[in-house]
Amino acid sequence: MRVTIETERLILRPIVPEDYEAAFKWCGDPKVNKFMIYPLYTKAEDVRTYFASRDLDDPNNYDLGIVLKETGELIGQGGLVYSPEKDVWVIGYNLRADQWGNGYVPEAMEGIIAEIQKTRKINAIVGEFALENAKSGRVMEKLGMHYVGDCEYSKLDGSATFQAKVYRKDF
User: Fold this and answer.
1) What is the residue extent of each domain of the chain?
2) How far is CA 97 from each of CA 74, 84, 102, 108, 133, rounded to the nearest angstrom?
3) Which of 47, 95, 98, 169 could in theory staple to 145 by disulfide, Cβ–Cβ 3.0 to 4.6 A?
4) The domain at 5-170 falls in which architecture?
5) pLDDT by residue (tens digit) across 76-103?
6) Beta bridge partners of 64
7) CA 26 to chain centre
């Protein structure tokens, strides 16, 4: 969605192809990519190609860039995508490893949730995280999400499968 949201410390805005070099800092980092569904990017240009393929006008997709207000740096991306089949919004996020632990993801997600709620009803948000990635679970807990079950997911290229937990928050 083409929106810009400001929180206390962040600007959340659409990611554009010109952001590819900044985004490669997390998309090409094995530490960040370890539990992501997408394969590790090995060339920054591939990130540009992916960003160019996205529909920025999709009203069901609030996947935005996370920018530090103080420096203007793009440090990650994340958001919510609506799943009409399940009538839930699915949460997802990526952040440069050097920015982990600063509370940016919960702040960004709270801003996006508030923005969506201005025009649409949110019945629930759901997310899943690999058991080995407990910090991601902590992000979901900070958002008021709670454990609802176990699952597993695989990388899109089939290179890894993870045992995972599903978290949910009803509104």
Assistant:
1) 5-170
2) 13, 32, 11, 16, 13
3) 169
4) 3-Layer(aba) Sandwich (3.40)
5) 999 999 999 999 999 999 999 999 999 9
6) 78
7) 12
